[in-house]
Recover the amino acids of this structure.
């Protein structure tokens, strides 16, 4: 915490932070709910001292079931944390064990209930589908129970195999077999329909919210709003430049103690890269790509640049509605392929 606060102070010495106005703060990465309330208080006090904070700021904290007792949650809420993001993942003991989650199903229920009693009106629950051993019936059953909890926001992600993880080794060694793509797609679409039927608008490919509970912080990422990040492996984006810190906690602490820069590397985005990121992130949103906004941002016409490639995806995978190019249901299943094609 001392190193993190020192990094805030270093940034303030280099930049005129009086011009920064923060509308969202996200305390994430790992399990920040393990912090003591006094730690969070010192963190928020330092942020408030350095930056101007919007009076309606969204302050999110990530929390894992079983690691966020009621007393802590109430203290965090009293300090101004007004949004909680819970990593529920599954309600099935065997699937939790497979994903190396240490919480139980009952702890997930208890933590959600404790968060409500602590005063949190805005709660997100993260869920995962297409887990080996998970059936469509089990997935929809878990989703239906979480819907009954009535969170304002639900994130539902397909399990992905990332290099360097135990799952990647298991799949490579054929110890684990991932679900067929058709099963994955079926779970996605049926889950999406169930959520929509219960008042959760799919405002992004994997994110669903009741009116007014969309995650403002994540929307900043998806709409290229500048953001600042601090801590190990933190990535920032400001004035068409992206930079990131060292990943290792030990290396981060060592550098901060020696007053050595913790930034590992940086890049300045070209116009082509900025356009490509715009296409990739905007297509994921239900609002899609606005031809008018694209022209305003880049000074050129979206169709003039991408029309030939766009044509082959119309109208089955992309539709034009009120100046917005949006993915259809068929298009949602090919979102990455479509974005990659248009980004060329």
């Amino acid at each position: 915490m001392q190193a993190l606060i020192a990094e805030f102070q270093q940034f303030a010495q280099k930049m005129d932070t009086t011009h920064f106005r923060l509308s969202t703060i996200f305390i994430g990465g790992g399990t920040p709910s393990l912090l003591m309330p006094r730690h969070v208080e010192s963190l928020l006090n330092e942020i408030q001292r350095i930056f101007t904070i919007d009076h309606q700021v969204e302050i999110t904290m990530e929390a894992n079931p079983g690691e966020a007792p009621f007393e802590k949650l109430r203290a965090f809420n009293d300090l101004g944390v007004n949004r909680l993001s819970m990593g529920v993942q599954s309600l099935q003991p065997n699937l939790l064990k497979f994903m190396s989650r240490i919480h139980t199903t009952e702890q997930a229920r208890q933590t959600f209930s404790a968060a409500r009693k602590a005063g949190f009106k805005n709660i997100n629950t993260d869920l995962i589908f297409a887990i080996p051993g998970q059936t469509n019936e089990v997935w929809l059953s878990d989703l239906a129970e979480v819907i009954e909890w009535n969170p304002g926001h639900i994130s539902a992600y397909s399990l992905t195999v990332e290099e360097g993880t135990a799952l990647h080794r298991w799949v490579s060694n054929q110890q684990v077999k991932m679900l067929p793509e058709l099963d994955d797609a079926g779970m996605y679409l049926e889950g999406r329909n169930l959520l929509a039927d219960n008042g959760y608008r799919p405002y992004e490919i994997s994110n669903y919210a009741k009116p007014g509970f969309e995650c403002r912080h994540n929307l900043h990422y998806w709409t290229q709003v500048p953001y600042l990040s601090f801590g190990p492996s933190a990535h920032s984006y400001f004035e068409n430049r992206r930079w990131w810190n060292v990943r290792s906690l030990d290396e981060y602490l060592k550098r901060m103690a020696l007053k050595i820069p913790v930034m590992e590397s940086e890049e300045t985005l070209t116009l082509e890269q900025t356009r490509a990121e715009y296409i990739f992130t905007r297509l994921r949103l239900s609002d899609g790509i606005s031809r008018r906004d694209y022209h305003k941002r880049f000074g050129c016409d979206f169709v003039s640049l991408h029309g030939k490639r766009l044509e082959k995806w119309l109208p089955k995978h992309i539709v034009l509605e009120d100046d917005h190019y949006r993915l259809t249901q068929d298009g949602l299943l090919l979102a990455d392929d479509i974005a990659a094609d248009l980004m060329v």
Q: What stands out?
A: The radius of gyration is 21 Å. The longest strand covers residues 52-63.
